[in-house]
Structure formats: C-alpha cells, structure tokens
C-alpha cells in the first residue's frame, strides 16, 4: 500500500466534518439550462451535471456549488429507422429508450445493462457492457453528434466532420459543458444466444485467451472465496430473434434486487462472519445456478438489460480495466488479493465481482481500451464499513497490473498512475479543457486532481 493511500485511509476512529451541501437545480428546458450556466447567474460555482447519479465517484457532485440534474430532459426526439439513428435529450434513461427502439425493431448498438442510467451520463462517463464482437466498445462510441451548453452558457454542436473533437467530448465527465441532446447510431434488433456455464478459476484462466479473441460477448461473475466463475457468453444468432422479456427480468430481479437486499439483512442479523459469508456464497451460487444458467438462453440488448436500481443507491463499487492479454494471471492474483485483504482486515465484498470484455475502442481520447482490448473487473459490496480501505487496496492491486480507470466508476486513482496509463491523451484532454473552460467553472476538487 502506498504512503498516500495509507494516509488517506478512513479508519473510522476520526469523525469527519459533514460536507456542505451543493444546490441541486433541475432545469426543464434549454433556456433554463442556459440561464443557470450564464456568467451572470447567481448560482455558485462549480457546476456539475448529473444524470441518474449512479457514479461511484464525486464526478457528478460537489461539496459546494451547483449540481445540474438533467433528468427532466427526457424526451425521445426522433427515431429515424431508415438512417438507423435516434435523437434524444440527455436525461432519457436507457430503459425507456431501448423499449421505444424495440417497438420499431431497433436497438442500441452494443450491450449496456443498467436501464436507469441516462444517455448523458452514459456518453459523458465510461459506460460499457458485454457487447458481442470486436467493434463494440463504449456506449459513447455510438454518438454521431451532440449538443451542449458550454461552461459560459453558449450553445455548441459537435458532430459530423468533427470526429477528433467528438473524441474529446465523449467521456468528458461534464467538464466541457452540459450535454442536452444526443444523436446515436442504432441498429436493427440482432438476437443472440446466451450460454451459461459454471467453471473453476483454473478452467476460466485457461479459457480466457481464446474467449478474448472469439466473436462473443462475455460477462462473468466471480466468487473469489468459492473458486467459482459463472460465465455468460453471447453469440449473434438469427434464430434467437424472437426473445421474451420475462426470463431476463426474473434473472435481473434475482441478481440486482433480491441478492443485495438479502445480503444486507444477513450482514445485520448474522454477526459471525464465517457463517454469514458461507451462507452468502451459497445463495450466490444457488441464484446463478437456478436463475441465470437455466432461465435465459435467447436475448437481445433490449431484453437483457438490468434494472439494478433497486439497490444501486446503496451499493459500493469500483471498476478497473485490465489488459486482456494478462487477464489469465490477473484473475488468479485477484483471488489471492481478496484472500489477503480478508485475512488482514476482516473485510470482503459480499457480492460477486462482475467482469466483462471491452473491445479496443479509440472513439474517445479517455477511452480505457484505447490501445488494446481490456477486461473490466467491478468489485461490489452492500457493506460500507471497511469498503473505503478495500477500494484503496484494490486501486493498488490494479496499479500493479497496469489497469486503466474511468473517472465515474473507479475509486482511488492516483494521478501518477492515471498519467502512466493514459499517456499523452490525458495531457491532450487537459489542454482542450483549459481552452473550453479557462475559468474552471465546471471543475470540482475531485476532477481538478486529474484534469487542471
Ligand atoms: C448497480 C450498478 C451497476 C452498474 N453497472 C454498470 C455496467 O455494467 N457497466 C458500466 O459501464 N457502468 C455500470 N455502472 C456505472 C454507471 O451506471 C455508469 O457510469 C453510467 O454511465 C452513469 O450514468 P448516470 O446517468 O448515472 O450518470 P451520472 O453517474 O449521474 O454521471 C456520470 C458522469 O457523467 C456526467 N454527466 C451526466 N449527465 C451529463 C450531461 N447531460 N452532460 C454532461 N455530463 C453529464 C457527470 O457529471 C459525471 O461526470 C453501474 C452502476 C451501478 C450503481
């Protein structure tokens, strides 16, 4: 553990003074949004745009200043089936958008699980899922054009013929202005077959290299204390076109709502960690065995979405992206890391670690897979106590293995490491940011650490 990390630890022995609260504004139209950002507005700096607020970091908040909640911008402006495009306001949630597209035989390109998140948050932040194939990476890659209100309240459109500028605005974490409308590439619904299997960590490690090269969408749940990996592999298949929602909904309900709530209760009522965690792991295995492996075999991006929001607000998580070439070793080391932390601190995550492949994606300057395919590892827990220290240690682990962060999902990123993995791209982004917002109107302390 680094010295900085050690000094940042929150041991619980000290009382931290509660933060000041930011003002939260929810503009309902473009004029209101411009008025808020106008230099003459009375609202306190910095301005931080917020979507569904599912970020794990302070990228969408501030201890003072003004949070701009964009969820009232919730209109699907136009679905153009012939041109395979949809234009939406930035506060539209992925769930309703997927349903509206499905009604016209269309779907979002790629796979982006969580239905509650907003288009603006998914474009401005790192957002990805178990997409099938080599050329599907970030959600933001689907952006054809976007409209923003700049940090000083002016209107700006970034779009066709401005690909290199677009690549800076994708994954810009709201630092270059507030996105209010986006046109996205969509496609005709392509059904997939999903196969589920359970394997040991050794089997999974052996399979990982061929899987990374294969034309499959890969998601997995890893139970580091049970030597079990539950693999969900997706392949496009024309015969899978007619897909039913219900089995996916039940699967999602089991994984995203029932288990986190049950685990929270078990953490309260069973004091002995050994017994509690044995029960928790058995329940995870049972749910995966019954719900995932047996229930769902055909799907599409619309049906396979997760409602996750049942527990989202109370979940702790941190996601790092590891180079796929090393992943057979990384996952073994991650198991040992979890065991060591449990031994040293008594803490372990109660929810399974989620992983998925992210193809190489150069559509955004700050893309975590700009140079090579990556595998995301998302550690998750329902327990707050002990989590902050775990996130620091997970950050050290990730640093050791050359993992890349995204600033809305990755906790405890140190600047030197961010510089080393994002190379000159970080400097380039900073230069553009300084030009667009020289007065740092959009910069809160969290983002200032990396992007001033
Ligand atoms: C249970 C759970 C499961 C998750 N699963 C996944 C997963 O499978 N894959 C994945 O990639 N992520 C996942 N996430 C993370 C999260 O959903 C994504 O980061 C998502 O993209 C954030 O969308 P949001 O609408 O909540 O945005 P927020 O979290 O509110 O904001 C994210 C960033 O975007 C900026 N922003 C938001 N709206 C705008 C706007 N209109 N204009 C400019 N900037 C804006 C914010 O300032 C912030 O920097 C998960 C989170 C939870 C809690």
Could you walk me through the main structural features you see in this protein, from its secondary elements to its overall organization?
This protein is of the alpha+beta class and 452 residues long. It folds into 2 domains: 76-189 and 417-451, Uridine Diphospho-n-acetylenolpyruvylglucosamine Reductase, domain 3 (2-Layer Sandwich), CATH 3.30.465.10; 192-415, FAD-linked oxidases, C-terminal domain (Vanillyl-alcohol Oxidase, Chain A, domain 3). It contains 13 helices and 17 strands. The protein has helices spanning 3-8, 30-37, 94-102, 119-124, 163-169, 201-213, 245-269, 273-295, 309-312, 327-345, 387-400, 415-436, 445-451, and strands spanning 23-25, 47-50, 66-69, 76-80, 85-89, 106-108, 143-149, 155-158, 178-188, 192-199, 217-223, 228-236, 298-299, 316-323, 353-358, 374-381, 404-405. An 8-stranded antiparallel beta sheet has the order 13-10-12-11-15-16-14-17, sandwiched between helices. Helix 6 packs antiparallel against helix 10 and helix 7 (245-269) runs antiparallel to helix 8. The radius of gyration is 21 Å and the shape is globular. The relative contact order is 0.15. The model is unreliable at 1-18 (pLDDT under 50). Flavin-adenine dinucleotide binds at residues 48-55, 59-60, 70, 90, 113-114, 117-118, 120-122, 124-129, 173-174, 178-179, 308, 312, 315, 408-409.
